[in-house]
């Protein structure tokens, strides 16, 4: 499995931090209707495995459903059983990349330094999450891409929204992890749709 076709369709990972299982399907449907098909449920959300199961059951092959804030091999195994096909970590841990790939999942681990990036790529990471992006800049991303293997997909995460996507895209970002600019606890499906449309407009304009 590859992340590239999903990013080609829409380069946004919708980070649904805090989502509850009973709202996962309606929010997921709203995102898919706006063309956002990569859905991440962070494991520090309420009953995250249930939300992952529901999203996977509802949207199957139409969406790439995964888990974020994955920090242990036991969690990798648990999200795989729940139907996740994408694993995202907040940190550099090559062992988690190996565990995810062994289960057929796409691995997008977090990094912040060139050394971490190269270690994760050596372990087989499909893409890299630059986190926290607020502590970096598009100029930092441009410098990183100058030394990373050609074609490395880097997705800035943290503080990403419609206002700064164009600058990150110009620096070479292959995609973006977007949290509260897309969804925060309490948002209705209609609110999520509106936020998604704003993000899509920024992508088209950039």
From TrEMBL:
TM region positions: none
Pathway listed: Carbohydrate acid metabolism
NCBIfam families associated with the record: PRK09140.1
Family: Belongs to the KHG/KDPG aldolase family.
Assembly, per entry: Homotrimer.
Source organism of the structure: Neoroseomonas lacus
Domain of life: Bacteria
PANTHER family registered for this protein in UniProt: 2-DEHYDRO-3-DEOXY-6-PHOSPHOGALACTONATE ALDOLASE-RELATED (PTHR30246:SF1), 2-KETO-3-DEOXY-6-PHOSPHOGLUCONATE ALDOLASE (PTHR30246)
Signal sequence coordinates: none
Entry keyword set: Carbohydrate metabolism, Lyase
Name of the protein described by the UniProt record: 2-dehydro-3-deoxy-6-phosphogalactonate aldolase
Lineage, top ranks: Bacteria, Pseudomonadati, Pseudomonadota, Alphaproteobacteria, Acetobacterales
One example GO MF annotation: lyase activity
């Amino acid at each position: 499995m590859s992340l590239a076709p999903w990013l080609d369709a829409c380069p946004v990972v919708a980070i649904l931090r805090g989502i509850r299982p009973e709202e996962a399907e309606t929010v997921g449907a709203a995102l898919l209707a706006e063309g956002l098909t990569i859905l991440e449920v962070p494991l520090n959300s309420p009953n995250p495995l249930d939300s992952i199961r529901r999203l996977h059951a509802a949207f199957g092959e139409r969406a790439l459903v995964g888990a974020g804030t994955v920090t242990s091999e036991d969690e990798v195994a648990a999200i795989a059983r729940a139907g996740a096909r994408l694993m995202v970590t907040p940190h550099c841990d090559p062992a988690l990349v190996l565990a995810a790939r062994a289960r057929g999942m796409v691995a997008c681990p977090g990094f912040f330094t060139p050394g971490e990036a190269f270690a994760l790529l050596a372990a087989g990471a499909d893409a890299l999450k630059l986190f926290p992006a607020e502590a970096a800049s598009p100029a930092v991303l441009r410098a990183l891409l100058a030394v990373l293997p050609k074609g490395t997909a880097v997705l800035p995460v943290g503080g990403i929204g419609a206002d700064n996507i164009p600058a990150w895209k110009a620096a070479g970002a292959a995609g973006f992890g977007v949290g509260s600019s897309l969804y925060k606890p309490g948002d209705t499906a209609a609110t999520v749709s509106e936020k998604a449309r704003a993000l899509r407009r920024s992508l088209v304009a950039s």
